[in-house]
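Input:
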Amino acid sequence: MKQGSSVNTQIDDWLHERPWKLLWYGVPALLAGGLVLLVAILVLSQQTKELNARYDRLAKFLLATRNFEEAKVASLHGLADLKDDRARSQKLYYLALALNGLGRKQEAIQLMNEAAPLDRPGCLEAQLMIAQSLLSSTNVTSEALRGMPLNATNEATETLRNAERHLLNALARDPQSLVANELLGRFYINTHNPAKAQKYLMQIYSAKPETALLLAIVCLETNDQAGALQWAERAVPVYERKVVESAPHYRVEDLQGWQETARIMQTLSANQKPAPLSEATAPSVRADTNAPTQDGSAFWLSIARLLVKQGKYEPALETIEQQIHNPTNPVYGLAIGEVCAAWAGSIPADQQGGSSLRLQLLQKGLTNAPQLLPLQLVLAQASHAPDETGPAAKKLLDDAVAAVTNNEAAAGWQFVLWTDARLRGDLPTARRHLEAAYQLAPQNPLIKNDLAMDLLSGSREDAERALKLIQSLLDQSPEAPGLRDTRGQILAKLGRNEEAAADLEFAAARLPNPQKTQEVLAKVHAALGPTAPQAHPAALLGQARDLASQRKYAEALAKLEPEMRQSPNAAYASAIADICATWAEKTPARQTAERLGIIQKGLGYAPQHAGLMALLLQATHATGDSGPAARKLLDQLVASAVGEDAAAWHLLLGQDARTRGDLSAARQQLQTAYGLAPERTDIKTSLAGVLVAGNRDDWEEGLRLIQPALDEFSDNTEYRNTRGLLLARLGQNKAAAADLEYAVTKLPNPAESRIELAKVYDALGKSQLADQQRRLAASARKP
Amino acid sequence: MARNNNVHNHVIIEDSALARIKASRVSLTLMALGMAPLLWLFCVMSWGRPAYQFFPLALAGAAVLGWRALKQASSSSAPLPSPAVSGQSSVVRGPNTEVRSPESPWPARSLGLAAGLLFLLANALWSPWLGFVAFLLGLAAVLWSLGGKALVQAFVPVMLILLTILPPPLNGEVTLTLWLRSVAVNTSNSLLDWLQVTHAQDGNTLLLPGKTLLVEEACSGINSFILCNALCLFWGLWQRRSPWWFVFALPATSLFVVLGNIIRITAGAAAFYFRHVDLLSGRPHEIFGLVLLLGYCVLILSFDQCLVFLMYSSHSEPDTAAPQSRAADGQPAALPTGGGSPSLGEAESLASNPQCMPDPLTPRPPASPLGRFGFAGAAGLALVGIGFFAAHLFLGGRHGLAKLPSLSSVRELKFSMPASLAGWQRITADSGDLSWVQTMGVHTVDWSFQHNGLQATLAVDYPLDGFHNVKICYLNNGWQVQSEQELLRVPGGEDLHAIRLELQNATKFALVLHSVVNGQGDWLAPPRSVENRFTETVAAPQTGYRIQMISAGYAPLSPAAEADCLAFFMQARQLLLQQLVEQFGKAAIK
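Output:
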C-alpha cells in the first residue's frame, strides 16, 4: 500500500511539475505523430487479395465503358508483384484490351500472346479470343480439311493446331467453360472428328441446351440420322424460346440456330438423306461467327408466326415491319394480316380499350391483306361488338365487302359471313351466305366442304348432294383427313357403314381433335354388328387382365396384340405394357434373355411405362450377355426419345446413377433431363438433391429448384430434407435445422441427415443436441 | 595577498582562446592555405549534390556555434587550460586551491600527425572527401593545442554540425535514398488505394490515368531528410539539450520528413486524379516543397516542446536565452535536472566553467601555443596542399574545379554506326527517342537496331563521374533488377569489362549490357568490395564514357536472342571505343 501510495505521489508530483503550457506548442508534433500512426494502420490493414479483386472488377467495368486509359492503369495495378500465373495472365489480358482500345495494337498483340501462351494455360478469355481469331483467320474450308493429311505442315494446319492448343489450354484453365467446350466442339466438327466433338459438346449440353443443334450436326457427320433427329428436336424449342425472348432485337446466332435446326428437322422428318449444311449457314453455325444469313421474307414470316403462336403479337408486327418492310412484297401484306388477325382475335371482349385496339388492328390488317379469311372473320365478329366500335367495324366490313370486285373475293366474304352466322347460331342467315358463296365460287374447296357438312343435317337427297360435292374434292386430294372425315360422316348418314368406317378410321388416326369422328365411328361399328372390329374394348381388356391374374400372360397378350395392331388404342397399349411388366417381374431372374424380351415387347407398345423402364434399367446391371443387351436397348430407347419422353429417361438414369453413388453421372443426366423438361417437379427436386454435393453456386441453384416444389408440397419429407441439406451448406443454419429436424423424424433412413443436423447444431452452438443426433445416426447405421 | 582585479581580468583576456588564436595566427593561416584547395573542391562537390547544397547553412551554423563556444571560453573567469606545448609544462591551479595536472601534448600531436598523414593521402588521391576528414581532424588537433580537452569538448557541437555535410562512405547515401523512396512510394501506393485513386505502382513510378508520376531522387525526400536532421541537430545543440533529446528528436524528425514526403506524393497524385491539378511539377511543386520544409521546421520545434514537457520540470525548465548571459556573468550554466546527464551543449559550458579552469596565476602562454612543432606542421600542410594543387593545375590540368557548373566545358564527340552490324540492321540513328534506354551524361548519342524481330537501342552517354552503374538509373525509372552479372569470356574467364543487367517491370523484361571507359581507353570497373567502394568514395574523379545496349519486350529473351545481343554489343562497343580513342588522339586501344 505504501509503495503504491509512493508511486502515486511520484506520479502526482511528476504531473504537477510538468510545464503544461509547453504542451500546447507540442500539439502539431502530436498531430503529426497521430497521422503517422494512422498511415501505419492503413498500410498494415490493407488486404492484397481484396484489392486485386477490386481492381479486376474496376478494369472490367472501365473496359466495358471504353475508358481505356484508366483501364490500362487499373490493369497494371499490382501486376509487378503478382506471382500467381493465373491472376497475372488475367491482368495482362485486361491490359492488352486497354492498349488495343488506345490504338497500341502491336503492344496489345504482344501482351495478348503473353496472356495466352501456347505451352500452358493462361487467361481463359485471352486463350479463347486468340483461338477464335486464329479460326477466323484461316479460310480453309471444311471439305479441304477433310482431304488434308494429319501431318500436313502448311500454314493453315499450323494455325488450326495453334487454335486447338489455345482451346485446350482454355479448357485446362476452366473445364466447365461453356465457350471453350463449344468452340472445341465446333473445331472438331470442322476437322471431322465427331467423337471428340461429341465429347466436348456433351459436357455443356445441360448448361447450354442449344448445343443440341451441334450434337445433331455431329450425328449427321456419323450418318446417325435417328440421333440427329433426336438432337434437332431437342434444339427446336430451345431456339424457339430464345428467338421469342429476344424478339424483336434478335441475336444472329439464335436465328441461325433456329433456321438450321428447322432445316435439319425438315430433311430428317421427310426421311431424306440430310444434305450437308447449307453453304450460307454452315460456316457461321460451325465457327460461331456472326455472318447473317436470314435475308428471305419467308424466313421472317415464319419468325412472325412463331411469335404469334407464343402470343407475342407486338414483336411479331415489329419484326415484319423492320425485316420485310416492303409493302409491294405479297409476303409482307400476308404477314401483317396474319399477325393483325391473331392479335385482334386474342383481345378479350372485356378488355379495357380492347375494342378500339381490335378495330385499329383490323384496319391495318385489311389494308395489307384484305383477302385474309381469319382477318375477315375477326372483323365479322367485331361488327357485333356492343360498344361504339361495333358500328365502326360493321361499316368497315360493309366497305370491304362493297370494295370487292371479283367473285372469288366476294365468295370469300360470303364464306366468312356464313361462318360468323353459324357460330352465332343464326343458321338461316348462315346458310344464305354459304349458298351465295357457293354460287360465287363453286370450286372453292372450303366452301364445298362446309356446304357438304351443312347438307348432312338435311334430307337424304341433301346427303347425296353432299357426297357428290365432297367426292369432287377427294378426287383431287384423296388423302386429306378432313375431307375423308366429311365423306365418312356422309356415308354413315347414308347407311354405307363399311365405307364410312374406313374413312372415319383413317380420319380419326390423323385429325388433331377426332372426338366427333370417333363418336360417329363408334356408331358405325355398332351398326356393323358382329362383323365389326372389337366394339367393346373394355370387355376385351377385362378378359386380358383376368388371364394375366391367372399368370397366363402369353394368352392375355395374344388377345390384346392383334386388336392393338388392327386399331391402335392407348388403352390396349397401356394394358399390354402392364401385363409385360408383371410378366417380367414374375419371370425368374436367371432367365435374363426372356425377361429382356418381355420388357422390350412392353416398351414397344408404351415406351414411357415407368415399371418397364425401371425393369430395363435394372436389367442393364445384370451380369452376362443380357446386361450389355439391355444397355444397348436402353441406349436405343433414350436416343429415340424426344422432349419429355427423353427427359423421363434421363431422370431415371440420373436417379439410378445417384443410387449407385456416381454423383457426376447423376448430375449430368439430371441436368440433361432438366434441359429437356424444365417444368417437371420430379426432375427439379432430383437435380436439387444432387446439387447438394456441389459448390456454393450449386447450392444456390439447388435451393432455387427445390423451393417451388416445397411451395406446392410443403410437407414432403424428401423435399424438406433436400432443402435442409442445401441450407446447411449455405450456412443458413436455423432454417436448415427446421427442415432437417422435420426430415429426420420421417425419413426411413435418416442417418446421413442426422449427421448433417448434428453439424448444424454445432454451428448453432447446440452441442448437446448435436451429440444426440450423432448417437442416433450411429445407432441407425448399426446392422 | 590581494590581487588587482583589473590586472587579473586583463591577464584572463590575454590568456583566452582568442588570444591564443591570435598568437598562432601564422600557423593557422598556413594551415588554412594548405587545406583551401581541397576544401574548396569539397564545397564544389557538395554543391553538385542536391542533398548537400545546404552546406553553406551548415557552415554558418557551425560558425555560430563555434563563435559562441569561443566567446564563452574567452569570457570565462579563468584562462583556458594550457596544454604542455613544446616541452613547457604549465601548472594549473584553481582559485579555490584545486590543483589540476597539466594536459599532455601527445593527444594534440597524435591528432595533428593523423590529420597531416590523412591530408597527404587526400592530396595524393586528390580526394576532397578525405581532405574534409583531414580538416576535421586538424581542427581537433588545433583546438586541443589551443585549449586542451576542454576546448575540444566545447567545439564538439561544431564538429557534429560539420559532419552533417560529409557524405557517408560506401554509397550509404544512395542506399538511404533508395530506401526513402521505396518507403515513400509504397506507402503512397497504399494510401492511394485507400483513397480509391485508380493508379498503379511500377517500381518508383506511379501511373495515373493520363499521367506517369516518376518519383525521382529529389522526391525521395533525401534532401529534406538530411537538411531537417541537420536543422534538428543544430537546434538541439543551440538549446543545449540532453543526449536523450537527440535520441528521440532525430528519429522523430526523420519520421516527419518521410510522412511529409508521403503526403506530398499522395496529395499530388490524388489532386491530379480527382481535379486534374498538377502539384508535382513546376511552381506548385516548389511551393509545396517549401511549405513542407516550413512544416518540418514547425514540427521540429513542436516536438522539441513535447520533449521539454516530458523531460524537464516546470522548475528546471531550460532557459534557452540564458547560456550567453550566464556565461557573461561568469556563473556556471544550470545543469538540467530532467535529463539526468549533461547536454552536448554543456561541453561548452564546462569549458567555460571557472571552477574547472586553472588558476589565473599560471605562467603566461607562449607567443604561439602551437609552438615550433605546430608551425612546422602548418608549413608542411601549406606546402603539401598548395604543391599538389599546383601540380594538378599546371601538370595534369585536372584540378577538379571543372566540376563547377560555370567552369564545365564538355567536349562533344562524334560517333557513328554502320547500317548493318553483326547481322543487326540499323533502323534509326540519333533519333533522340530514348524510349527505354536510361542515360545520365550531358551528351547522348543513340541508335536503334533490329534483328530477327528483336529491337535494341544502342547508346553512348558522357561525361560521367568515373564508373557509374546505369542500374541506378533504371531503378530510378521503375525497373527492378532481376540479376546483375559481370561478363567473362568463355572459356578462359577473361574479364570482358561489360555488365549484364536483367530488368523487369510490371509488364516488360529487358536486357541491358553496358561498359564504361575513360578518355584513355581504359575500362572502368565497378567497385567489387567494401575496400573498392571506399576507395571509390575517396578517389579522384575521372571522366567516364558509357556504352550501353538495351533490348526490351513483353517476354524474357531466349538464350539465342541474348547471344545475338551480346555479339552485337561487343562489336558495337569495339567500334565506338575506337572512335572515342581516336578523337582523344590515343593510338593504343586496350
